[in-house]
Design brief:
The complex is a heterodimer of chains A (about 270) and B (about 100). With about 270 residues, chain A is mainly α. Helix content of chain A is about 80%, strand content about 0%. The longest helix of chain A is centred in the middle third of the chain and has 36 residues, at about 105-140. The radius of gyration of chain A is 19 Å and the shape is globular. In chain B, strand 5 and strand 6 form a beta hairpin. By secondary structure, chain B is mainly β. Chain B is globular, with a radius of gyration of 15 Å. The chains are: A mainly alpha (about 270), B mainly beta (about 100).
């Protein structure tokens, strides 16, 4: 039961943290909740579909279909997170001042919200499909201990969701002055971590060279299957034995998005001065 | 026509089993062989063949690899180049029994 709980927890955790952070980051955008919920629902349906077609996806492209699929999903998520963060940089000040001014600009708000839907949907899709497969395996294998394993799965899922909610509630307690900086940094790190994961899948598929693998080995000090390692993996893309190429992707995503955020903020500031 | 060609390009998976360097078989939630020796310093194409009806995740922190293998199907994983050493892996969904290691020499 405990082993089951941990597996499901790990899968749910990543999606739950992403949703928690985004829910907090967009809490002042009117209607964002509905889009988040829609993304969650679409992701759940999608993960069932992906799980059902695992063997088909896996056998595409000479057996590296799964890696390509994961890398594409992660790539889209990185782009959407980048877009979200840059959008927030140019609207954060307005959002902080009054939610109304952004609410008025419905078209602008809507494109941000559809990015939200996509990010949440893809996160749930990726992690959810593995959970579905795992739980399906348990349900299909029958035998004794089945119900306790499914109970473990439920326990793991609830713990993951609880942590997602904790980060959401925690972020909302941050004073307004720091709030957008805090959520911005978290989203930035999420995106960089996903870029590194995308590289990981492309290396596994032999589409990218690994460049020095592993670059370092911190699996003794901070193993990825321990809770701190798991959390750091989901939040900032921690990898105990990363390939050099992963770090390249990480740093490129980090710097490109940061520069984008800076550029987006600039006109806002000059307008504030004049 | 062009689209057909593109789709057909995506489906050479009938051959992918043939040119793998090594094969791991999953049966009754166990890996066979449970220890696989490969040359170090060389990239290796590994075929994981799941003969169980239930899905399995080939998972290795040591190798930095994770791959879902659906029930009664196979999956390709590229590993290495590795330094000499022992690299453990598990079938995450049945970690109690599905244990193994790659030994790079």
């Amino acid at each position: 039961m405990f082993a089951t709980a941990i597996i499901v927890f790990r899968e749910v955790l990543e999606a739950a943290l992403i949703i928690g952070i985004l829910a907090a980051a967009t809490s002042s955008i009117p209607g964002s909740r509905r889009w988040l919920a829609a993304g969650l629902l679409a992701g759940l349906v999608g993960s069932g579909v992906v799980a059902a077609f695992t063997d088909v996806i896996g056998s595409l492209a000479s057996g590296i279909g799964q890696e390509l699929f994961n890398a594409i999903v992660l790539g889209i998520a990185v782009l959407m997170l980048a877009w979200h963060n840059i959008w927030m940089s140019s609207h954060g000040a307005a959002l902080a001042a009054s939610a109304k001014s952004v609410g008025n600009n419905i078209r602008d708000g809507r494109s941000e919200c559809s990015a939200l839907l996509l990010i949440v949907g893809l996160a749930v899709l990726r992690e959810g499909s593995e959970t579905v497969l795992f739980l399906y395996g348990i349900a299909a294998s029958g035998g004794n201990g089945q119900s306790s394993m499914l109970l473990g799965g439920l326990l793991g899922m609830l713990s993951g969701i609880a942590l997602g909610y904790t980060i959401y509630a925690g972020l909302l307690r941050i004073p307004m002055r720091w709030f957008f900086t805090a959520t911005g940094v978290l989203v930035l790190l999420l995106a960089a971590g996903m870029a590194s994961q995308a590289a990981h899948f492309l290396i596994q598929a032999d589409l990218l060279p690994s460049l020095a693998a592993p670059l370092w080995d911190t699996s003794m000090a901070l193993p990825e299957n321990g809770l701190p390692g798991m959390l750091l993996h989901s939040l900032i893309g921690y990898d105990s034995r990363p390939a050099g190429m992963q770090l390249v992707f990480y740093l490129v995503a980090l710097s490109v998005i940061s520069i984008g955020m800076k550029l987006a903020r600039r006109p806002q500031q000059t307008r504030g001065v004049s | 026509m062009k689209r057909l060609l593109l789709i057909s390009l995506l489906f050479p998976f009938i051959v992918f089993a043939a040119d793998a360097d090594y094969t791991l078989t999953i049966k009754d939630h166990q890996f066979h062989p449970s220890e696989l020796t490969i040359p170090s310093g060389k990239k290796v194409k590994l075929l994981v063949e799941n003969q169980d009806a239930t899905p399995e995740e080939f998972d290795s922190y040591a190798l930095n690899r994770e791959k879902m293998v659906a029930g009664n199907s196979s999956a390709v994983v590229f590993i290495g180049p590795l330094d000499p050493g022992r690299y453990t892996f598990t079938g995450e969904f049945h970690a109690a029994t599905a244990q193994g290691a790659i030994v790079a020499k």
